[in-house]
Amino acid sequence: MRAVHVSSPEPLIAGSLATWECRIVLRGAPVEGGGCVKIAYDLRGESGYNAFPQATDPAAANFASVTGPDGVELALEGYRSHHNRPPDDSGRQLGDTESYDWRDLLGIYSSLNLHVLAIRIMSGRLEAGDELRATFGDTSGGSPGMTVPGQAKPDWRHWVCVERAAGAPLELLGGDTVIVHPGPPERLVVVAPSIVAPEEEVPVAHVALDACGNPVRRVRVQFPAAAGEADDSPMDGANPLDRIRIEDQRLGLSGQSNPIEVVEEPRYRLFWGEIHGHTCLSDGGQRTPDQFYHWGRDTALLDFAAIADHDFGIALYDPEKHWQMVLDAARDFNESGRFVTLPGWEISHAGEAAGQRYGHKNVYFLDDDPPFFTSSTYGGGRASVDYTHIEELVELLERVRVSFMLVDHTSHMQTDWERFVPEYTRLVEVYSLFGCSEAKDVPVPTGAGRIPEQCTARAGLDRGRMVGFTAGTDSHMGAPAAWRETSFGHGKVPGLTAVWATELTRHAIFDALWHRRTYATRGERILLHTAVNGRMMGEEVLLPQPEAPRRVAIAVASTAPLERIDLIHNGATLASWDGGGNWEFAVEYEHTEPMAGLAAEPDLGYYYARVFQDGGGMAWSSPTWVIRPC
Ligand SMILES: [Zn+2]
Ligand SMILES: [Zn+2]
């Protein structure tokens, strides 16, 4: 007989109300009165899940019960043990002590998000061989059941620990897993290449998702050349556009692809990626680096992805082993023409001391085998520190001669544009699950509007920082660009980064990011072209004379009816157009006033486009910079 056995009378469906049972057979010394048996279940990647087991109302949701041997009085209590400090949602104060006890016992990397059902021995004692049966979602008193986590997984783990007397150390008794199945399919995501050449076959993939965003079915099909079949609503006055509608008759669902532009001998293709995701190596994450890339390639249908785990998480306990996991996954999944990965990490807690803060920055590498350096003392001294200041990290990386790039992520309200590293910072994140951090005049600002003006991406541009734009998720569920984010529980949509690259190789993607041929979206694969005097997003224009006019071209093909298109110039909206509910938009705008430079850089100016479509979709082009001749 196993010490721990978890089972359910019906299959557990993600996000549903259900019942499951944990049977425990005690071993070893007795558990005395005042002692405790704790069932902890793994909710890493599910920090928005707040269904604690309760033992007070048998008719309410999440009712839990327990049976044990005769003569032993038991009491139940549900709470959270989390890598983050207390108080948790149930109001209970938990010190780091218990979370580190769990972490040390279970060996689950840096992150910890357990919900715990504590079975306290009020009177009597439990002997070896005694059996406890805990029922989660006991419906016998009218309860509708207990909420199942939103992530489908083949191995939802429960652990059982004992404290053999009041205050005794936590001891691991055993564990078991149960399957969480996806729910019925509700949504069909259809993805096609954004740019194709005439006569090219068009690979189209579709993924059916359940209500929680779990994949139910994935299909890839090949379509004949789009040329000739494209409708006649050319974008940019030139190229035909198409969108492919797919009906999955087996599932009874249909979906429409992103816009596809047919381009004769395209100079660049458009590739879609997410370069700001976390795995089990960061706080709260569950999936491994391998599972992260698997999701990115096969469920999110991305062309490229990068893990940006916190340096403090990688550095906890065993940095060498963890960094190797990141490198191995990046190397194993990197496949030219199919899916590109970039090794990297997030510099998160550097310079935490007052007056030293410079904000979170992600570092990405071209090489397969770059070194890892950490800046954080997070984790009660379990992590080591190699440097404190960003300038020191740059020196360390320069010394080992690796190709790297820095991306500021402005969502954490700490970006200090004075602590900018001009040689290596090429991009800034304008959107993540935390919200928009482009500027203050955005519909879903980061941190409920708390981002200080001087920390936004636009504040950086206004200081003359020449950074292009990315968007990502900052997801901690190990699922890049997941359509529905559960790890923060705030229902925001993911961000995506589009890059104009010559081909789908790591070198070409890195090159495109480095040269800022990027734009950011709130998840939708909106097609967006911008140019100033013929120079595309990310590029620079040297004006022939100080008064020379700037001709700005913007062309959009959307994935929903267009609401508005803004042209932003030097810190303000220069022009705005009503999208009129159309699915395509193109404009040429001549800016004839002599250019007033930026206050911080009088000979520099920038232009970028911002697109709004129905349903909250947005896109931001990287700026094109204009340099006035002296
Ligand atoms: Zn961060
Ligand atoms: Zn992050």
Report on this structure:
The chain has 7 helices and 42 strands. Strands 22, 23, 24, 31, 32, 35, 37, 38, 40, 41 and 42 form an 11-stranded mixed β-sheet that branches. A 6-stranded mixed β-sheet has the order 2-12-11-5-8-7. Strands 25, 26, 27, 28, 29 and 30 form a 6-stranded mixed β-sheet that branches. Helices cover 10% and strands 38% of the residues. The protein has 630 residues and is mainly β. The model is unreliable at 91-95 (pLDDT under 50).
Notable traits:
mainly beta, Immunoglobulin-like, TIM Barrel, 4 domains, eleven-stranded mixed sheet, six-stranded mixed sheet, 7 helices, 10% helix, binds zinc ion
Top-tier CATH class of the largest domain:
Alpha Beta
CATH architecture of the largest domain: Alpha-Beta Barrel
Question: Which residues sit in consecutive blocks of at least 5 with pLDDT less than 50?
Answer: 91-95
Radius of gyration: 27 Å
Binned, the helix content reads 10-25%
The tally of helices reads 7
CATH topology grouping of the largest domain: TIM Barrel
Which ions and ligands are bound to the chains? zinc ion
Q: Based on helices, strands and strand pairing, what is the structural class? A: mainly beta
Mean pLDDT: 90
The total count of strands amounts to 42
End-to-end Cα distance: 84 Å
